[in-house]
Structures are given as C-alpha cells and as structure tokens.
Amino acid sequence: MNQISFLKISSVLKKIIIAVTGLSLFLFLIIHLLGNITLFTGNPPGKDFNQYAHFLESFGILFTIAELGLLGFFLLHISTALYSNFINTSARVNRYAVSSFAGGKSKKTYASQSMVITGVVIMIFLIWHVLQFRLGIYYDTTYLDFNNGQPIRDLYKNVTEEFTNLWVVAGYTVAMTLLSLHLGHGFWSSFQSLGIYGKSFTRITYSISYLLGTIISIGFLFIPIYIYSIN
Amino acid sequence: MSEVISLNLQVWKQPSADEPGSFEFYSVKDISIHISFLEMLDVVNENLQKEGKEPIAFDSDCREGICGTCGFVIDGVAHGPLAKTTVCQLHMRHFEDGQTLVIEPFRATPFKVVKDLVVDRSSFDTIIQAGGYVTVSTGNAPDANNILIAKDNAEDAFDAAACIGCGACVASCPNASAALFTSAKISHLSHLPQGKIEDDARVKGMVEAMDDEGFGACSNHAECEAVCPKGISISNIALMRRNLIKTIL
Fold first, then answer.
1. Which of A82, A88, A207 to probe by mutation at the B interface, max B CB count within 10 Å?
2. Up-side HSE of residue A166: CA atoms within 13 Å toward CB?
3. Cα(B84)–Cα(B225) distance, rounded to whole angstroms?
4. Are A179 and A213 in contact, with CB atoms under 8 Å apart?
5. In which domain, by residue range, is B71 found?
6. Shortest distance, CA A23 to any CA of chain B (angstroms)
7. B110 inside domain
C-alpha cells in the first residue's frame, strides 16, 4: 500500500471518523461543563475547583495519556474535516449565482453550511483557552485539610483573573456562540453519518440538536459573564 | 386571475464545456399559466428562432416527470420552487406576473456543461457500472413470487427505486455530493434478497466510483431530499453508511 492509496479513504469513512471524534468531543464538553460547576461551590471560593484540578492531575501518567488522547481526537476531527472540505470545494468549482434554501425536508442552515468556519474559529479559541489555563501562569495555594497542607495549583486564581478582562469575556462570547451553531448541526449529523437513522430518532435528535448546542454554550458562557459581573 | 403572465428570465448561456458562459436576459410576455416550465422555454425558443437568434439549449424527454432527463436550477433551487416536481411538471401558475427568474444549469465539477442548461451526467452511469446491478443467470424468467419478500422491504426497495437519476441531489448539495443518488441505488437492491448477497462489493465499488468521479462528501444538509422530485429519503444515505461499516467490521 503506497502513501497515496493509504490517504485515499472513502468520503463515507471520512465522515464516520468526523462523527466518532465529534461525538466523543461532545461527550468531553459535557464532562468539562459538569466539572466547571466546582467553580461555584466550596469554601473558601475556588477550593472545590482547585481540588478537582489537583485530583485530575494526581492520575499522573494516565492523565497525560488522556490529555494526549483528547488532543489526538481534536487533531483527527479537524484534519479529516479540512481534508474533506478541500475535496468538497473542488467538487463545485463554478459556483451558483443564486443560492437558496429549498425548505420542506431540508436541514440546510447557515450553521450547517459554515461548519468549517465555526470549527476553525473554535480551534483558534481552544489554543488560546489552553494557553490561558492549562499552560497559564502557575499560582499556588494551600489548604490545611487537603494534600497534607502541601501547596497545590491555584487554577481558580487564573480563572478569576482572566475573566475580569472585558476583551477575554467578549472573545469567549464569540467562541461560545459559534460553538452552539457547530454543535447544533454536528450533534444530529453525527448519528446520520454513522448510519443511525430512524424516522422518530432522527426527528428527535434533529429537533434537540440546536437546543443542546445552545444549552452547552450558555452553560460555559455563564462562567466568564458571572465572574466578570461580580468583580 | 389573469391567464397569462410576463417574466424576466436570466438564463445561463454557455457555448460548450471549454468556453466561458454568462447570463443572458430575456423578457417574455403572454405566457399561459397552464403550460409547464419547459413549454414556456419552448415558447421563448420559438420566438428566438423567429428572430434568427440562438435558442436556449435544455434537456427533456418524457415531460411527465418520470425519465429524469430534464432539470436545471431556478432561483437557487433545483427543479424550481415546487416540492417533488421536475421542471417539466412545474406549471407557470406557480409563478407571479413580472417575476424575475435566474435559471442556471446543475453545477458540479463532474457534471460538465454541454451547452447552456444541458449537463453531462454520465458520471452517474459510471457509478451504476461499479455495482448498481444484480448478477443473475440468464434463462427463463423466474416465476413470480418465487422468492418471498416482506411487504416493508418491498416498499422500502420501491421507494428507493423511484430515483430517476436526474441529478438534482448533486445540484442542490452544498458539497456537490452524489450520496443520495448512489445510496438510493444501493438501498433499492439491498432491500431485496436478489441484491442483498452482493451488498459488500456493491457498496465498496459504488462509493469508490462516486469519490473517483469527483463528487463531494455528504455533510447531512438534507437539501437533496427537499429538492428530489421523487422525495428520496436521506435514510438511504444512512443505509449506505451502515453497509459500508459492515464491510469494514
């Protein structure tokens, strides 16, 4: 098998890869959002959040493997989608003078047509997000009743510092709005890409898809807006 | 309601695949609302010929919506604004007096423009040749009902077989994907015992041919289902994907 035939995987298989990685990343987002609830609990503020972050890091090598796995899923999702988009663009070199929406059974929306644009913006946001927090400034703090009183990372301080900046909050608002659109088409579409279709199933997943995307985005966006508003 | 309407047409004119095309404007008057869109173009062409001008080239054959020969894009929608209707069955009563319509050929890299609104859809034949058939021993016609088929399967097979291969799915797809056409042909045979046994080779061959012809990938916009004159469901695309997954597992 030479290199070219190795790269030449069918359009259907590419979509299956995008769907599997996409649904996995969707699941990650939900876990991430649930974990973020600890930002609002604990006394003193931030204790639960810092302990949760420390708990995750305490898995050591397993945590690193999970992080690399997550990175791999992102890279696979993005690269396959960009490759697929390149082929799609060359499948219609001469574009229509007028484009429209047929309505009826169509599920074509501005969101479904801009998956690559929203995806690329979200990717840029993710790089920024990781630099801000995961690879951000290292503050530490101690809790007498945790980790034998030894210092642990005060990630809560990074969060509160970043979200007092209006530009950061504005950036997050843009990214989360685009995320809601991306998930809105992505969620139901992933099942269809995996061949999971049923009259009621597809109707239900499609009708809740944009709603789920919006709920997740509002959930994430609540954090910077809330922290900004109390400071 | 007036029985005749006037229209402003903006029609894509292109002498051949290798020459550039552009829009031409035609102002047409006294069009009966009872004629079809193609008959309206016939009237336009008749007048153009009388004036010694080049008529608009377009494809048509049966003109009763069952052959899949006709088709172009009206105001950004393949086969025009009426659902489950080919342009030959689209009547002028669905348009308003004084309306401006932009008429373009089906646009996709594998569909080369032959002339004006006529496109070459032979890439569909290539996809069919890659597995859209059943291998049978020739001989006497088998007895009817020799192989029993459940009603649901027969219905699903028939729904998929309703595809007339007009190419509107490709034309309307933002990615110019032929997934609806290819999957309808796969699904039609996959629902029947005669076709089922060749499922693996068929789905592999036809998907490969579809990609090789230069069609895009399906991103689940379902615009194809909305414009399909036969209302072919995207459930067929899901079946094609399941069949392909089965070949890998």
1. A88
2. 0
3. 9
4. yes
5. 4-104
6. 15
7. no
CATH 1.20.1300 fits A9-87+109-230, yes or no: yes
**A–B: how many Cβ contacts below 8 A?**
142
Low-confidence ranges of chain A (pLDDT < 70): 1-8
Cβ of A33: how many Cβ atoms within 10 Å?
16
Domains of chain B: total: 2
- The predicted model scores a pTM of 0.94
Pick from A14, A92, A115: which is nearest to B176 by CB? A92
Over the stretch B143-184, which tens digit does the pLDDT of each residue have?
888 889 999 999 999 999 999 999 999 999 999 999 999 999
Q: Do B50 and B152 share a structural domain?
A: no
A112 and B219 in contact by Cβ < 8 A?
yes
Give the integer Cα–Cα distance in Å for B169 and B225: 7
Q: What is the pLDDT of residue A166?
A: 96
Residue B116 lies in a domain: no
* CATH classification of the domain holding B216: 1.10.1060.10
Tell if the CB–CB gap between A92 and B210 is shorter than 8 Å: no
Nearest CB partner across the interface for B108, out of A16, A92, A98: A92
**Can you give the pLDDT at residue A2?**
43
Instruction: Report the complex ipTM.
Output: 0.92
Secondary structure of residue A167 in the 3-state scheme: helix
| pLDDT attached to residue A7 | 55
- Please list the ranges in chain B whose pLDDT falls under 70: 1
Same domain, B126 and B233: yes
